[in-house]
Request: fold
Amino acid sequence: MESNIIQFSEFLKKRHFTKSILLWFKKNNRKLIWREQRTPYTTYISEIMLQQTTVGTVEKKFPVFLKKYPNFKSFTKSSEKELLTYWSGLGYYRRARNLWSTIKILNTSYRSEIPKQKKLLLTLPGIGVYTASAIRAIGYNLPDSPVDINIQRVFSGLYGSELSHKQIEIILKFIWPKNHSRDFTEALMDLSSAIKKNNDLIINGLDLKKYLFSKNQKKIQTIKFKKVSNKKIKISFFIIRHKEQIAFLKKPNLSFFDGFEHLPNSQDEFSSELFTTSQSKKIKDIKYTITNHNFQIKVFEFFTKSRNKKFKWFDLKDIASIPLPTLYKKILVLVP
Reply:
């Protein structure tokens, strides 16, 4: 198998795969907002945002986020709570907390810059091998090889069977262009996106037939990667109201939204004991997906004559200014 990988690498090199991809990218690259000004900072922020989030969602959130936080130093005037407010809508909130931890380290130990060295990048919270390689290749234009499932799909499709990350790294070392790490990395990303949409052999003038490696292969091999099955969670949320105020938990049990204010829910023992569904009015059923979890939600409303001190209470007019995940915003929209 290893000799076949070397043969495939030499095959791509002889057929000028790298040059063709770069020329194709120059004419057909996606006009993504984070590519307008490529810096190590914007690369880091966009790569963290794009983890398990669609390009369309990031395109909407990125300019707002960048206006508030134009560089690493700008975070010194903020707080984790405020950061979470600006992150709301991107999901997978552990990324935001890791980002906050990393930026504190960069501002105190790295003169508000992100390091070039891969060894140092991998010590920072939330930065794994792929993100470290992307920061180096795209942010710093250094020779590196970020390999994710999309790039894996390109080379596996051309090769004719599924390749591992390690095998693709071997291929990339053979064909990597000098001084064009940024463009080549993004070219592979855009090619993967185009193949995923069309699975055609000719994509915007780029003929991929000459790069098919397997004998008698007439199309890009569709590789089926294992999907992580979604976990179904049934949960009830309580909108507990006292006049023009709404109750939030002081010590929430729900782990998906650490760092945010939390609505009372059926996973919270105190809330479940205090407010049963028979005492409340059901107002909505909601389905909501976050990462690999499908929520089946029942929303109940309960009016109380007094404010229980075990809750935190916020005025309705202040709700928009507190950090809330998108799910809670969807629930609170139901409040008249």
In short: Strands lie at 202-203, 206-207, 231-242, 245-249, 281-290, 293-303, 311-315. The longest helix spans residues 181-198. The mean pLDDT is 88.
